Amino acid sequence: MRHEGNGTAPGTPGEERVRDATPADLDTLVAFNRAMARETEGRDLDADLLRTGTDAVLRDPARGRYLVVEDGDGAPLGQLLITTEWSDWRNGWFWWIQSVYVRPEARGRGVYRRLHREVERLARDRGNVVGLRLYVATENRAAQAVYAAVGMSAADYRMFETDWVLH
């Protein structure tokens, strides 16, 4: 089901809206993900691998769900990806917010806040979601400030990984 986050019709001048990404957004999502990786980690992601992985999400909702914010003319301003994790301790789902990107010229205008509020609304409406999580680079202070401003707080965990693809 496609959801128009704030109820505005496409193309309403001056109105930004949140919507589910569709296969037609693939090029934009890939471009945003590549830009985010360059900006936050100095990585130049393999475009073909990224395209295949992003397309897999768009074709299989069990893998995740991309949300996009677009302006009143339909131009994408930002994105995020929602994935899920089962919590046996809480008997419910955590939704992970990933692949966050907002175009540089749209930053500071509440684009991420719109995305985040939509994720919160969707999660609460689901009834079995116990919370939201995300990870952020330790040196990315600007993003940390944005996440704190929407009510998130630092967790008492450190992330460890074994990555056989990017390392």
**What is the average of the pLDDT values?**
91
Q: How many independent structural domains? A: 1
| C-alpha end-to-end distance | 37 Å
Please identify which CATH superfamily we are dealing with.
Answer: Gcn5-related N-acetyltransferase (GNAT)
Question: Any overview of this molecule?
Answer:
- This protein has 167 residues and is α+β, with helices and mostly antiparallel strands.
- It has one domain: Aminopeptidase (3-Layer(aba) Sandwich).
- It has four helices and five strands.
- Strands 1-2-3-4-5 form a five-stranded mixed sheet.
- α1 crosses α2.
- The chain is globular, with a radius of gyration of 16 Å.
State the main characteristics.
5-stranded mixed beta sheet; alpha+beta; Aminopeptidase; 32% helix; 167 residues; 23% strand
Summarize the structure.
The protein is an alpha+beta fold and 167 residues long. The protein is 32% helix and 23% strand.
In terms of topology, how is this protein built?
Layout (H helix, E strand, L loop, with lengths): L16 E4 L5 H16 L5 H13 L5 E6 L5 E12 L4 E11 L8 H16 L2 E6 L6 H9 L18
Parallel strand pairs: 4-5
Antiparallel strand pairs: 1-2, 2-3, 3-4
